[in-house]
Automatic annotation (TrEMBL):
InterPro entries listed in its UniProt record: SCAF (IPR009636)
Biased composition (Basic and acidic residues): 27-60, 172-195
Official protein name in the record: Phage scaffolding protein
Pfam (any one): Phage_scaffold
Region feature Disordered, mapped onto this chain: 27-67, 145-195
Polar residues composition bias: residue spans: 147-171
Positions of transmembrane segments: none
Domain of life: Bacteria
The species this protein was found in: Oceanobacillus locisalsi
Amino acid sequence: MQREFLKELGLEDEAIDKIMAEHGKAVNTTKEDLSSAQTERDTLKEQLSERDTQLEDLRGKAQGNEDLQATIDSLKEANTQAKESYEKQLKEQKFNYELDRELMTAQARNPVAVRALLDTEVIKLDEDGKIKGLSEQLDGLKESDSYLFTSEEGTPPSSSNFNPGSKQKMNTPKDVDPYDAGRQKALERHKKEEE
């Protein structure tokens, strides 16, 4: 988010400073989470490669022992499946991150609601890590459900100084004679006491 964009929206410098501070907190938290996840990923990759190496060494030493060979093969298969599952999870995580980023770039008011209306089977992540097949769907949603996105102009609606009920002829109280008002109240009280 850039200060020039916020200034174009007509925000004051104080409001811009507050928005940028909050945005900075969110960005720093996301960076920390990403760095932590990348470190964990690299550690897990190293552990998997070490296990594969250890299994290969063990396999070489276990020549002639059929039971041990079968155990090693099953462990190797389990490691391969764990690695594939982990890679699939990483791809899904990257896809979700990129999709959310694109929805924020498209100025979706509620990314969760917009995401529910998208056909995610058509949207794919290419080799470069970019989302493909999203822009056409977003253009269609902007036409059919424009309320889900902030306006392109970015101008906030002007506030009117209308105060309901003020300076209207119908809201002026009628002049009431105090004698008639007191008499009416007395009659209302007297009737209640009789009942």
